[in-house]
Each structure stands twice: as C-alpha cells, then as structure tokens.
Amino acid sequence: MKENSYHLHDPTWCRGCGIYGIFAALKKAAASLQIPPERMVIVTGIGCHGRLNNYFNAYGFHGLHGRVLPVAAGVKLANSSLAVLAVSGDGDAYSIGVGHFIHANRRNVNMICIVVDNRVYGLTQGQTSPTSQKGYVSVSSPFGSKETPLDGPRLAIVSGGTFVARGFSGIPEHLTALIIEGMTHNGFSLIEVLSPCVTHNKINTYKWFKEHIVNLDDDTNFSAKNKKKALEVLSDQSKIPIGLLYHEERPSFDDLSLPSDTPIALTKLDVDEKKLDAIMKDFM
Amino acid sequence: MKENSYHLHDPTWCRGCGIYGIFAALKKAAASLQIPPERMVIVTGIGCHGRLNNYFNAYGFHGLHGRVLPVAAGVKLANSSLAVLAVSGDGDAYSIGVGHFIHANRRNVNMICIVVDNRVYGLTQGQTSPTSQKGYVSVSSPFGSKETPLDGPRLAIVSGGTFVARGFSGIPEHLTALIIEGMTHNGFSLIEVLSPCVTHNKINTYKWFKEHIVNLDDDTNFSAKNKKKALEVLSDQSKIPIGLLYHEERPSFDDLSLPSDTPIALTKLDVDEKKLDAIMKDFM
Amino acid sequence: MISDIQVMIAGYAGDGVLFTGNVLGKILKRQGWEVVTYRDFPSNIRGEAMNYTIRASLNKIYSRGDYIDVLMAFNCDAILRHIKSVGENGVILCEGSVTESVRLSPKKGRTFHKFPMRELAKKNFRSEIFKNTILLGGLCYILDLDMKIIREVLSEVFLKRKGKEIVEKNIQALRLGCDEAEKIIKEEERHSLEERPDKDRLFLSGDEAIALGALAAGCRFFAAYPICPATEIWQWLLKHIHKFNGLVVQTEDEIAAINMALGAAYSGVRAMTSTSGPGASLMMEGFSLAGMAEIPIVVAHVQRVGPSTGLPTRPEQSDLNQWVFGAHGDFPRIVLSPGTIEECFYFMADAFNLAEKYQCPVILLTEQNYGQNFYTVEKFDLSRVSIDRGMLLSQDELLKIEDYKRYALTENGISPRVVPSMANGIHMVEGNEHDEKGYRDEDEEIRIKMMNKRMTKLNIAAKDVIPPKLWGKEESDIGIIGFGSTICPIREAMDQLEEKGISTKYLQVRTLWPFSAAEVEEFMSSCNTVFVVENNYSGQLSRLIQGQGVECSRVHKINKYSGHTFRPVEIAESMLGVLEQ
Amino acid sequence: MISDIQVMIAGYAGDGVLFTGNVLGKILKRQGWEVVTYRDFPSNIRGEAMNYTIRASLNKIYSRGDYIDVLMAFNCDAILRHIKSVGENGVILCEGSVTESVRLSPKKGRTFHKFPMRELAKKNFRSEIFKNTILLGGLCYILDLDMKIIREVLSEVFLKRKGKEIVEKNIQALRLGCDEAEKIIKEEERHSLEERPDKDRLFLSGDEAIALGALAAGCRFFAAYPICPATEIWQWLLKHIHKFNGLVVQTEDEIAAINMALGAAYSGVRAMTSTSGPGASLMMEGFSLAGMAEIPIVVAHVQRVGPSTGLPTRPEQSDLNQWVFGAHGDFPRIVLSPGTIEECFYFMADAFNLAEKYQCPVILLTEQNYGQNFYTVEKFDLSRVSIDRGMLLSQDELLKIEDYKRYALTENGISPRVVPSMANGIHMVEGNEHDEKGYRDEDEEIRIKMMNKRMTKLNIAAKDVIPPKLWGKEESDIGIIGFGSTICPIREAMDQLEEKGISTKYLQVRTLWPFSAAEVEEFMSSCNTVFVVENNYSGQLSRLIQGQGVECSRVHKINKYSGHTFRPVEIAESMLGVLEQ
Ligand SMILES: Cc1ncc(C[n+]2csc(CCOP(=O)(O)OP(=O)(O)O)c2C)c(N)n1
Ligand SMILES: Cc1ncc(C[n+]2csc(CCOP(=O)(O)OP(=O)(O)O)c2C)c(N)n1
Ligand code: SF4
Ligand code: SF4
Ligand SMILES: [Mg+2]
Ligand SMILES: [Mg+2]
C-alpha cells in the first residue's frame, strides 16, 4: 500500500487549514502500517474535521455531532479485526461529546481517536469552543469567553486513558509518528492535534502555536510512563507540550470483554436450537 | 432558623442508608448559615439521592436524570440572590451527566453540587456505576466490571473546578463543615460524599469506607491551595482522601457575565420602547 | 372444583413481596396451572405500599382477574386498601401485629385471620427473613399445594446462592406456615387446586421473552443504560450472550447506547438497545440517523407512565406517537407491537429480519406490565425462528460488482449492503444527504431521488410487516381495536360479554408503522360499533387510525391512564354503557 | 419603467457572495424598494458552488421570483448552472477568466458580457478582495443605483470595522466597476430603478426578527448551542440583551441548553432556547419535563432539511411531527408557526404569553429560508407587544394564601405559580407524577386528576391561540392550506393564477397545536378543491388535518423536499394541472 492508496479525493478545506496536515499524516501512518483500506474504518464527527471521510479512502461513518466514540466502539467491538479510527473536533469531542470522551478513556476499547483542536467551531462559522482561551472574542462571545479552557489530554489521563498524546498539524512527521504509535497501542489512544483554523481563528495561528509548543522529545527528564510527570507538564498553562504524554499497558476492554478471538461480525449467524433449548430450561 | 426548619418529612430511604447522614449535614449547614428556606433551591437528579427534595424544606426541582447542573445554573443565573444546591448521584453526575459536570467546573457558576457517591445505581436496583471498583459484581456486571473507576474530585480539578472537596456520610460533623465552606465559596463547589448503599452495595460499606479514607486535616503538609498536591493525593488509589482538596479564588461566571447586581428575576419586565427603538435602527 | 384463583400478596417495599410472589407463581406453574402475575410497585426505595397479584387458572387466562380470592397482607393497612377487591368468599390473612387493631370487619362471606408471620419467623428462626416462606406455607395449606413441587422450587431458588442449610431452614419454615394455617383456616375456606401435567411450558416475563427472542434471532450486540422497566432485558441477556460469541455493554447513557449499537450494526452484527420513556427521548437523534444512513437497528421500548419521569414502574401506552412521529425529518421506520408474551419472543426475529431487509430502524414497543410480569406460555418453537439478512452481500457477491454503491438507487429502494472489512466495498455511511456512494451531496435531484428511495422502502415493507390479528366472533358487529398488552383485559372482557350473550370481535394491531390502514378500515366497516381501547390519555392509536383517513365517526374511545392496566370488568362495563344506550 | 427585478450573484464558497448580496439588498432597501433575498448555500467550508438571489420590487413581494434578470457570475460554471433560470431579457456578467472559454451562447434576448472583476481588482488594488465591490459597481451601473446610498451603506459596513481608508478604497472600486460596466453594457440592457422613500422600514432576517421579538417580549435568559440555521438568533441577542439585564449562555450541548432555560424559567425569568433538526431531537426529554412540571419555556426551532444531519443550510418543514407528537408521554404543548417576518417578531410575545398563561412549553417553528434570508418590513409596532404573565403571583398575593399548592387542581387546570425566593410559597417542581404540592405521588386518583388538569389547560388554550388567517378571495372555491414560510411562494402563485383569471384563497395555519381543526374544516367545506402545500415529503400538515377527523378526500397534496423552497410557478403549475383535469 502506498500513501496514495488512501487518497480518494483532493480535500476542499480552506487553503492553509491545519486539517490538511492531519490528512497527510494519516495517509502516511496507514501506509507505514500497511493497513488495507478496506480494513480501516474512519468514524467522524460533525464539523470541518468530519469531512475527512470524503477524502480518505477507507470505510467511513459520518454520524452525529459528538457521538464518534460510541459509534467507533460499536464498530470495533463488533469486528475486532478492523482498524478503527475516530476523528473528532474540539467542539465534537470536548463540548457535546465530552461525556463519551471520559467514558471512552475509562473503557479503553482498542481504537484511536484524533481530536482536531482548532480551538473554534469551524463549520458553524467560528463560535467559541471549550478549548478557546479565556477572553476569546468570537461571534458567540463578543465580550470575550468567560470559561476556563479545557485540556483534553489532561482529562484523558485522569479518566483512565492508556495512551495520551498531542501533535501539531504544522509538524507532520512528528504527528505521523504519534499516529503510528497510537495505532499499535492496545487500548484507547487519544491524539489531540493542534490544528489552525485559518478562516475563523485569528489567535491560534501557526505562528502562535509554534511559539507556544514544547516538544517533549526535547525534554530528557520526561517519561511517558509517569502519570505524575504527565500531569505536571500539562499543568503549566504557558506552554503546550506535544508528543507522547502518557502511555500505560493495561488489558483493553476488548481483551476483557469479548467472549472469543473470533470477531463477532465473523461468527456464523444461525438459530442454535441446542443452546437455546438448554437456556429455556431456566424458565420451566 | 433551627435545624428542623428544614425538616419537612422523615425520609424513607432504606434504614442505614448513607443519605441520612447527608440530609442531616445539609440541615445543619443551612441552619448554621441561617439561610431562609424560601431562599434555598435544591435541584436533584433521578436516583435515591433525588428523594432529598421530599424531605428537605426548601424550594425543590426534581428534573431529569443527569441534568441537575444545567438546571441549577439556570436557576442561579436567573436569580443570583438564591442559594442553589444541586444534589446528584454517582450515576447521575458521573455517567449520564458527566459532560455537564466537566462544563460546570469550567463555567464556575456560584452554586454548590453534592454528589452522593454510593458507587452503585441505587434506585434502579443495584447496577454498576462509574465509581464502582474494577471487578465489581452486580446485576449489570455479573462477571465483574471491566472499566477503570472514575474519580469525581480529580476530574473536577482538571476541569477548572475552584472548590473541590470530599466528605463521608459516616462523619457528619466533618461533612457539615465542608458544606458550610462550599456554600460560602464564590463559584462552583463540588462536594462528593461517600455514602454507603446498604441495600445494593455490599462492598463499599461503612466499614470499608472507614478503612480506606484518610482525613486531609490530619496531613499537616497538605494545602488545598496547591493543585499539584491535590492531584497527588488523589492519585494514590489505595486511599481515599476526604476533606477540602482544592480551593481557588477566581471570579465566578456570575461575576463575569451577569450584567448587573440586580438579579434578572427581580428586574421589572416591560416593553422598553426607547431602547428597542434604538436597536431597531440597526436594521434600517 | 376450583378452576380460577387469584392471590394477592401486599405489604411495604422491603417486605419481600416480589420474591414471595415469584416463588408462588413458579409453584402454581409447576402444578400445571396457567399463571399470570401483576406487580403493583411504586418506584421506591423502602417503606411504600406495594402488592403483587398471582392469578392461576385451569383455562387460558390473559390478565389479572377482577377479584381477589386470597389476600396475604403484611400489614392491616393493606387490607384497607384492597378490601374492595376481595371477592365474596375471599380469605384474608394478615400479619396484624399485636399493637395494631384491625379496624374493619370483613364483609359477608369474606373471612379474616390473623397470621403472625413475622412473629413466627422471629420466634422460630430468630430472623424476620423467614416470614415470606411462612407465608408461602400458609398458602400451601389454603391452596393444598404439592409439597414436593414447593421443595423443588425452594431448592432451585436457594441452593446455588445460599447453600443446603438455608434450603432446609426454608422448608422448615414452610412446614411451620402450613401447620399454623391448619390451626386457623376452616376447611371450607380452602381452595384446593387440582394438579395438571406441566409439560414443555415456560414461566417468564415479557422482558425475558424479548431477551430470549433476541438471542434466538441472532442479536449479538446489545448496548444499553439502566432504566425501569427495560433493564431486565439486557441483564438477563448478559448471562447468556457470551455463549453465542456476543456482547452486552452498559453504556454511560442512552445516547451512547444507540450510537454504539449503530456502530455495531454497521459492522455487520445484529445489534440492539432497549429503553423506556426518558431514554427513548434521548435516542431520537440516533433514531433519525438510522433512518437516514439506512442502518438496521432494533430498539426494544418497554413503556412506562409518562410524561417525563412519570411513574417509572407502571404501565402505559403513551409512547406510540413518539416512535411513529418523533425525531426530526421524514424517514422510514417500523414499529411492532407484540400482544402476547409469545409475540414478545417471536417478534424479535421479525424485528431483526425487517431491520435488515429494509435497512431501517425497527422498534419493538411493549409495556411494563408485559415487561415485568410473568406468564405461563408454551415452550417457544425455535423452528419458527428464521434469520433473513436481506440484501447483505457476501464477499464473493461483492467482488462481482463493478462499482459498488452503498446507496444504489433501485426500484424498491433497497440497496445491497456490505460491511467494513470487505474488499471492493469501500463506501461511506452518512447522516448528511448523500449520493449513491454515500458521499455528501446537496444537489436537488439527488436529494429527491434519495428521499424517494428511502421512503419507497417503507411502502414495500408495508406489505411485509406483521398484519393485525382477528380474535373473537368474526360475524359480530361489535368491534374492538387495540395494540399491545391491552389484549389481555380485552379478551377477558370479551368472555364476560359473551357470557352475557354479547358477541364481539377484536382486531389486534401488531404493526403500528407502516400502519395497517386497509385491514383496520375493513374491520371497521364490518362493525356497527367500534371501541378503541388504549392505556393512555389522548388515544394515540385512535388518532393514528384517523390520520390514515379511516372514517372514525362510529368509534368510541376507552382510555385508562391511571398507571394501571384495565381490569377486564372496566372494559366490559364501558362497552355495555355504550351498547345499552 | 421597471417595477420588479431579480439579481443573482453566483460563485464558490469563499468568493464573498453572501457579503455582496447583503450589501446589495441593503442598498435596494434604501432605494425604497421591497426586497427579498434567497440564499442557496451548501453546508460547506470552501470551494462549493453557491448563489444568492436578491429580488426587489416596487410592489409587495413575498418570495424569490421565478426568473433572473441579472446574473453576476464569479465563474463560467455558474452560468451553466443557472442559465435556465435567466429570464428572456436577462443580462449575464461573468468574471470569465481568460483561460476559460465560455461554452455557451446565451439564448435569444439574453446577453452575455465578460466582466473581469478579479483581474480588475488585482490590477488596480493589488488584492482580489475588491472584486466584490467592483461587482457592486457593475450592478450600480446596470440598475442605475444612487451613489449616495451606496457610499452610505459601504461606510456603515466598513467604517467601524476597517477604518476610513478601506471605505475610500471601496468607493474607488465601486466607481471602477461602474465605469467598466458602462463600457460594455448597452443602454437597453440597463434596468433603471426608480427611487422611493424608505421610511420606517427594516431589512432583516427571520432569525433577527425572532431575536428582536424575544427581547421585546421580555426574554431575559437564553441558553443555546450553535447550530445552523438558528445560531443567528442568539448571536444577535448576545449583543443587546445585557442592556435589558438579560443573559445569553452558550452551553455545552442542546440538552444543557433546554435544561438551563428550564431552570431559569422556574426561577421566574422569561427564558428560551433555539435549535434545529438534530438539536431538537436532543431536547425531547426536556420538552416532556416542561410539560409535566408545567414550566413555561419557549423554543425557537428554525427548520432545516432532515432527517439526521440532512442538509444543514437548506429549508424544509419536516419537524412539525416532532413537536406536535414527539417526546414520551401525553402532555400539553403549543406550537406556533409564523408565516411572515412580522409574525416572527410578533409571535414571540404570543409565545411567551401563552407559555406563562398555560404554564407549558411553546414552540415557535419556522424555517431556514426565513431564518437566514432578509426581507423588508414595516418597522415593528411596539405598542402591539404586551406582556401577560398569567397566573404568576406576587409576594403579596402569595402571603394571602393559606396553604399554597403549586399544582392546585383548578377548573381550567391552571394553578397559580410562584417562584423561588418568595416567602410562603415553598413547593416542588417535579417530573415524576405528583400531588398538588408537587410531591411525588403514585396514587391512581391523583394521577388521573393531574393528567386531566394538565390536558385541560390545552383545551382552554385552544381558544386562545393564534387563529388561522385567510388570504385571497373569500368567495373562491379553490382553497390552499399551508403553514410557515410557504406563504411566500403561495401568495405569488395566487397572483399568477389571478392573472389567468383563477381566483383562489389561502388559509394560513398559524398554530399547529392545539390544532385549529374547526377553522380548517370550515375552510375546507367552503372549497371544491383544496391544495395542501408543504415543504416536506410526507405531508405532515395533511396528516395532522386528517388526524383531527377532517374529511380530506378532496385534498391534493403539493410537496417539495428538494432542499429548496417552492418557486411560485411550481405551485401555480401544480394547481393548474389539477384544476384543468
Ligand atoms: C446535535 C447537533 N448540534 C449542533 C450541530 C451543529 N454543528 C455542526 S458542526 C458543529 C461544531 C463544530 O465544531 P468542532 O467540533 O470543533 O469542529 P470543526 O468544525 O472546528 O472541525 C456544530 C455545533 C449539529 N450538527 N448537531
Ligand atoms: C434518561 C434516563 N435514563 C435512565 C433512567 C433510570 N434511572 C433512574 S435513577 C438511575 C440511576 C441512579 O443512580 P445514581 O445516580 O447513582 O443514584 P442513586 O440511586 O444511587 O442515588 C437511572 C439509570 C432515567 N430516569 N432517565
Ligand atoms: S473553516 Fe477553519 S477548520 Fe474549517 S476548513 Fe476552513 S480553516 Fe479549516
Ligand atoms: S437503595 Fe441504597 S442508596 Fe437507595 S435508599 Fe436504599 S440504601 Fe440508600
Ligand atoms: Mg473545532
Ligand atoms: Mg449511586
């Protein structure tokens, strides 16, 4: 599989949009892992990020705003042989969908979730999102946002997340590496991607992100095995760490719950009279 | 106001239920703060905890499962002169309602939220809840729960909570003190209360809780002003710290958003032709 | 010889009423009787009044009866509440603790006995807990039950969970109750039950029948959130589905439940969720997505009293409107309504087959009184269950297709379906309007074609869904129409009317959408008088019928919305009131 | 003399089509013309085709017209798309970059000119951005617009946000466009517009009218989540409500939005939320709570195309069913449907008054084409707005009551309401079934009384809601029925038919629930032929009428569900098709 096996159409996001970088990284990661397109399912949310399906050659599910994670878990649990990728946005995952986000981290189904964090509601024309910084002025907060911004990776870690990372769409190689790592992790992998919205967010631009990120690879003291450390680097509000923040090996929900190694979707469906008869005895 | 000014009816929770302790502490706290019952609004969720309204003499709102926090915020923002108390459960606040919980902490409306944590779904007859421990056996997880339990206070702190505490219904004086402190805090106060369900939860009993809690008052090194410390004590899974975990002074959402000191509900409602006329000019 | 008996056990929450009633039901079933139970429980924790009725008969019965023959009361208050329902020769046994004075003397024929279960339990076993078995012992004497059967049932109940010793103690308690009863009950107050063979019969609730039906129908993924009175479905399934390589997931809420089920269904697994009132409202968005994206999914909805939290443990039929008309936009949906416990089982296979054949959401709408009450039924015939996956292609079939289109425009609106992992089948499943391949498209022509395609499926399905069923005397000109569990009191009421020389017939609507308009119209035109009987306020079925353009001027509505099912006599009397005018 | 003109600006998303159209609309309004706009935009980011139609007339107009007089195209593709809509003497101006060859020659009468806006902008201003003002300059020449007005509008648009320099540059660009047009446009191709006085008129969208109406009606709390096409309501309100000591909160989702509004309404503030399609489905649970707990709340729903995410920026009328029948259980609800921009404004006061008088949820149901398009209207008459808070007691009144009961059983079902903070009024607001004080109660009698009480309110309200409005010739026997914004093409179609000598009349249903059955029936019985015109697939209004038992055999349904409003001629022709049979 080459990279362009995954390229279905040229995207029509605004010129310069950060999601282009994510699209490229995803294709690279898939190619590097040699995942056949038909074994990949991409579940997307509603938002600019949700258009990914239209450009990426893989099975796609474009459902409801905020509900990517339950859908993706359903896809994966039903057929554990698939590579399942949920693509969400800062509004999709952290506003309307944050309940599912918390529980996805607790549940630890073996799939990957990419949150395209442009710190704004792109598709609905620029409203303030949960990651917009305090005081952010937009059509929906003309006098400045009054709420403390939310930090997805931090929330993921305290919710029991087993693989928590952050990338930046402006550094595609780094992002590609993270995605590859996340896809090979056994359990729920979160990769939040800082991704400028060139049309609606005039604050969190490429330049701004570049000035604020710190790459954890440069911090030799840091270890992604250490939850305390991870929470520590995430508590410094002035800097945005990128890289693998936390990683833990823990049996996935799939390991713990699925009754067998045969994917449910691949078991023959018939009326097993013998088994059912035995069960009916309970009611006699 | 005496304590029994708030006593409307004798409760009918199961004999020995932890919620009795919370009921008592709430009455004590209200009496100590001398809040007139008619200036108090208690918004409850659906669950055993939701019966509180039936016994406590104050204005009450028993709405939907998981939605206490938005309702309570609406009540408070509409009439900032009220003392607003949201009473929720571990299922109500942390399962179906956890999205609102995260955002309530970010938003920081000046009200208090009590989460009755019995680590089980009481009213629906004993299903596993988000705080049930891993491996917990119940009607809904006969082979043991597979998910990492959720820690409400920790989630609150990383979501921007400004007052985060935990009490135990088995130590009512301590709990009363926390509630009093929470009610005087300007902003969103979370008090999670460990509360045995004697009927459905045979694991997290009074005895069990007593063996697992540590009182932060006994830890002279601890300061509730230090977020890092708070997260640290919460990360030790073998112990359950009780007391004030984190406290920060930050302008509340009410301070930042309400246009005046006059509660909205108390402003005269009329058709102000002059002001409206001026606004209509924009469309000419 | 007694052929029909009704026992009520009444007490407060916490008294063990449910447990005692269930055991009694099972015993009566094993004696070979037809059994129907009726639980009247508040949504409560402790300390509120509740009661449980067990009716048994040698003949086919459908519903609780009108009068109680034996009332076993844990407190005097219960007698006050239920005395008016006690039949003329009824026997009342009451715990009647010494401090309480029984303030009423039973009316003519009715006899009253003090039966100090709690006291006896404490004295003999040092634990109140045995009061329930003592009560059963009392009933055992009154009804002349077979000790062997009781022993058997008690060991089934206690052996696994509590061990041998407890079984023995309970049998002692049973004997004690029996002996005590013998002391106080006169021979003529006994209702000796004949024994009949109990062969190949089941005793189960509608929720259990639905779960069993789901399992038989190939449901292999179930995602749900706890809610009364639907939780029993998946809590039962949970114990068995792994034997079929299936999975139940308790989700964080109903929104996650329906979305997770949608994901699993899309992956090619027969998937469902279950819920009630408020949970159903939360599922509306996912319901609409299932319609748009053409994902086969089944929702079992066990109705309780609304609106809002309403009365969570009581029956009603007020969520028809929601599933037939709720959720935004026009999309295809199928709503089935089982009228018997058997149908709860068999309709599950229909539900999944219809969902896959028409690639749309299918709702199985039932009611709390089925969901949580127990009935004797013939053992389910598994040869009647078949699995039809509709236009689901195999990999081989898919490979033969040149340019696969998930939403191909076909004459009947049904497009061949494939699932992820299949080579040559890559496509998108989309909640936005889309083209044949599933890609978002806003073109006017496409939109019109896609709407037509989706809605056409429903027209085809209309000919394939479960038709209404006719009961009673076809030649009668007095007709009754209803759906779901009201069939029980209706059939009993029909028997009562028949006894009075009034023949009637009943059309049981079994598919609420697409609506069986032609059959209903035909039925109505064969009647002079039509009664539409519903357990709701507004007459949702009546309006549904009327909305189909069926002439409804001769319709009389009989509605009950008190949080209880009809008693048969209520229906019979309402009908007589109209007929005698 | 020209009295009716329609201009279309067509391009791709990102071309500034919306901006240019809005400015043109405002200019034409200031020239004293009646203006109606129509946006045809995909839900998109960049690069998809979109267009914007501005129709202006000296007479009252209601909808976009059938044909385009001037097409300003940013690319040749747009011409291909819209050529069939260009009228006989239409003028087409196209950017037509040099590399593109215009592949079509306009048909007879139509003229085509290359008008290189982008090129001119780049050459003269070194920035493409001025292409839009150059385009306006071109139009300025063709329509002979008043330079003073344009200057005025441009400074209003740019001065505050961009400063004086930009205003000046834009005015230069405007001149340039005008001069360039003069070079290429023949005199006979111009459509000179007469100037009229523009006194006391507004130019605004339905969303803005709703917001303004809410403000006038005393709405002081608004909680909502962004969604097309309803967001404009609160985004506008956000800028003004603080002047009235009110607050708008952007919530985390729609569930929080409705619940927060319920909390605020309970606190005694007039509170509302707004939403569309998927958001409305998420609000069903709160809707049912409002009905049960009798909390006055208003929801403004601006309909888009469903089901599911559908076509988020396009109009439809397929959410009637959801609000009339959706959500679990039977409860009182009122659904209003404004048919004009004026009604969007005035009905807001009705909505709040009805909500408080009947203590139930009130829905204002409108459509995207009102929500997001602009219309000229007479300045709203504030003396027509009044505030009636129903049975909301003052503290003094409350103190006089012995034993206050929030849900007191009264004859008309309406119970005096008080709000927290009032002494002597402590009570509970409850979603479970409850007694008169609001405390949970499962008693059968109470349940029945409370259901009757709540539903009785609706019967009373039925006499108090906004009645249907009759348009056209009362004596005609050709009737049309519809609701909401379809009035626009319907009224235009009626004019077209009138010109052909066919008189018609139109009954505009303005309250969808409780349904105006008597008025509709009377109207229908005065007609030989009735058309029910709806922007949806299934004919939700038709079924609603039929469900009321109104005889519907003479009804012809005219439905459109392509994601667009009707063009007047479509309705006229469909009607003619039937009438000529
Ligand atoms: C239930 C529901 N509410 C609201 C919307 C409208 N909506 C569409 S996209 C979106 C937000 C998008 O923001 P984000 O998730 O950050 O995605 P982005 O466009 O920035 O990639 C909203 C609110 C919807 N489709 N469904
Ligand atoms: C939308 C919805 N889903 C489900 C329910 C059923 N339900 C009632 S209480 C409850 C859970 C109660 O658990 P918790 O919040 O922990 O309260 P507790 O009874 O333990 O105090 C559930 C699931 C409901 N009322 N509404
Ligand atoms: S609006 Fe923003 S997020 Fe959306 S495509 Fe354009 S730049 Fe990207
Ligand atoms: S069920 Fe549990 S939580 Fe509920 S009242 Fe009883 S002991 Fe308390
Ligand atoms: Mg975003
Ligand atoms: Mg609990």
Number of strands of chain A: 8
Ligands in the model, by name, code or SMILES, are: thiamine diphosphate, iron/sulfur cluster, magnesium ion
- What is the alpha-carbon Rg of chain A in Å? 20 Å
For the sheet with most strands of chain C, the description reads: 7 strands, mixed
Return residue spans of chain A where pLDDT drops below 50 for at least 5 consecutive residues.
Answer: none
Any descriptors?
heterotetramer, A: 284 residues, Rossmann fold, eight-stranded mixed β-sheet, 10 helices, 32% helix, C: 581 residues, alpha/beta, seven-stranded mixed β-sheet, 20 helices, 38% helix, binds iron/sulfur cluster, binds magnesium ion
Written account of the structure:
The complex is a heterotetramer, with 2 copies of chain A (284 residues) and 2 copies of chain C (581 residues). Chain A has 284 residues and is of the alpha/beta class. Chain A has one domain (19-281): Thiamin diphosphate (ThDP)-binding fold, Pyr/PP domains (Rossmann fold), CATH 3.40.50. Chain A contains 10 helices and 8 strands. Chain A has helices at 19-33, 68-78, 90-96, 98-107, 152-158, 172-184, 206-212, 227-235, 253-257, 273-280, and strands at 40-44, 59-62, 83-89, 111-117, 163-168, 188-194, 213-215, 240-247. In chain A, strands 2-1-3-4-6-5-8-7 form an 8-stranded mixed beta sheet, with helices on both faces. In chain A, strand 7 (213-215), helix 8 (227-235) and strand 8 form a beta-alpha-beta unit. The longest helix of chain A is centred in the first third of the chain and has 15 residues, at 19-33. Chain A starts with 18 loop residues before the first helix and ends with a helix. In chain A, 63% of the residues are buried. With 581 residues, chain C is an alpha/beta fold. Chain C folds into 4 domains: 4-198, Pyruvate-ferredoxin Oxidoreductase, domain 3, CATH 3.40.920; 203-384, Rossmann fold; 391-465, no CATH class; 469-579, Rossmann fold, CATH 3.40.50. Chain C is built from 20 helices and 21 strands. In chain C, helix 19 (540-547) links the parallel strand 20 and strand 21. In chain C, helix 7 (206-216) crosses helix 8 (231-237) and helix 17 packs across helix 20. The two termini of chain C are 38 Å apart. The chains are: A alpha/beta (284), C alpha/beta (581). Chain A binds chain B through residues 95-99, 102-103, 105-108, 130, 146-151, 154-155, 158-160, 227-228, 231-232, 235, 253, 256-257, and chain B through 95-99, 102-103, 105-108, 130, 146-151, 154-155, 158-160, 227-228, 231-232, 235, 250, 253, 256-257. Strand 2 of chain B pairs parallel with strand 15 (428-430) of chain D, so a sheet runs across the interface. The structure holds thiamine diphosphate (2 copies), iron/sulfur cluster (2 copies) and magnesium ion (MG) (2 copies).
